[in-house]
Amino acid sequence: MKITKLELVPASKYLFIKIMTDEGIVGIGEVGAWGFIDATIGALKKLEDYLIGKNPFQIEHHWNYMYRSMYFRGSVIMSAIAAIDIALWDIKGKALNVPVYELLGGKCRDKVRSYEAVFEFTPEKMARRCVELKESGFSAARLMITGDISKPSIDKAMDIFNHKIESYVQKVRACREAVGNDFDLILECHRSMNPCEAIAFAKGVEAYRPLFLEDPIPPDNMEAMAEVASKTTIPIATGERFINIQEFELLLQRKAARYVRPDVCALGGLTPSKKVAAIAEANYVTIIPHNPLGPVSTAACLQLDAAIPNFTIQEFPSFYHQGNEANMTKTPLVEKDGYIIIPDAPGIGIELVDDICEKFPAKQRSISAQIAYDGSVYDV
């Protein structure tokens, strides 16, 4: 079998790809650098020159060739490699008539626990949405603690340390009181706190026993993240921005996280994500895959989740429901009581609908940063 073509499939806010072969088997993948899709297209076109005529089964070899070429690495290049890697695994599974999880060691579970984000930003509305999710079968929800990242802060009082921390704590308190004890709260901080704020906030919500505190500070300085982790009993989760396995190893060496969040479509695909799971397993750390993208990303995550012993919970993008994105695939994912059933179809388990580009016209996300009350910029 030989690779004959790489086709770009822009749909909605996503970029999918198809890799064609001379035996008619087609693999699908998805790009992770959603803010820079045009740049990723350039990387994909360059990598296509290498792929044409190659045997798609040599996934590890191709991954290393692409990763080690041209000296340069970064989120755009790794997102391109990720899309290709997922598509190659999809081809191999289809050719051998098995799900990808069989090629990764076999199934460890039949379904995966999942959670959705709460896109409400006042304590009362957040609590109400948590109750709705609980009633629909979910046992966990992601709270956007630091507010709506698409809008600038218009609250002057958020410049006051005590007011800011207390306003964040109130959100968690309201949600815990609304849902009771049989529900997990995931606290998404979007990297917008400094270490002092993160530690104070964590201490303020320890009594509500959240599942984890996600990216309380920017992840670039692992020593600072380790300091935050050492000052709270709440587990820290991070890693969604990482683009190589070495970053995860350094993070765990410093005991800076108890959950790690590889993004299959940003890290370089299933090939490095499986390695991250092994690194984490050796450190008694579990995996919570980052997944803010489309159905190919979700399907790839499910194959990883199925094949590793140290899985905790899967992020499930809210727009899968709100954006009618179940219609992007020929067979929707099967959900039940807050769990997603692992697809048993060959490859990654899904197929894109034939007219996806017409049903979901391309509309790239714009880049953005969070603007504070005084006009300054802070991390998102």
UniProtKB/TrEMBL annotation:
Family annotation (SUPFAM superfamilies): Enolase C-terminal domain-like, Enolase N-terminal domain-like
SMART domains from the UniProt entry: MR_MLE
- Keyword Flavoprotein: yes or no? no
Segments forming domain Mandelate racemase/muconate lactonizing enzyme C-terminal: 123-235
Q: Which Gene3D superfamilies match?
A: Enolase-like C-terminal domain (3.20.20.120), Enolase-like, N-terminal domain (3.30.390.10)
- What are the UniProt keywords, alphabetically? Lyase, Metal-binding
Cross-referenced InterPro entries: DgoD-like, Enolase-like_C_sf, Enolase-like_N, Enolase_C-like, Mandel_Rmase/mucon_lact_enz_CS, Mandelate_racemase_C, Mandelate_racemase_N_dom
GO terms assigned for molecular function: lyase activity; metal ion binding
- Give the UniProt record's GO annotations in the biological process aspect: amino acid catabolic process
Supply the NCBIfam families for this chain. Answer: PRK14017.1 (NF010624)
Descriptive protein name: Galactonate dehydratase
Identify the species of origin. Answer: Anaerobium acetethylicum
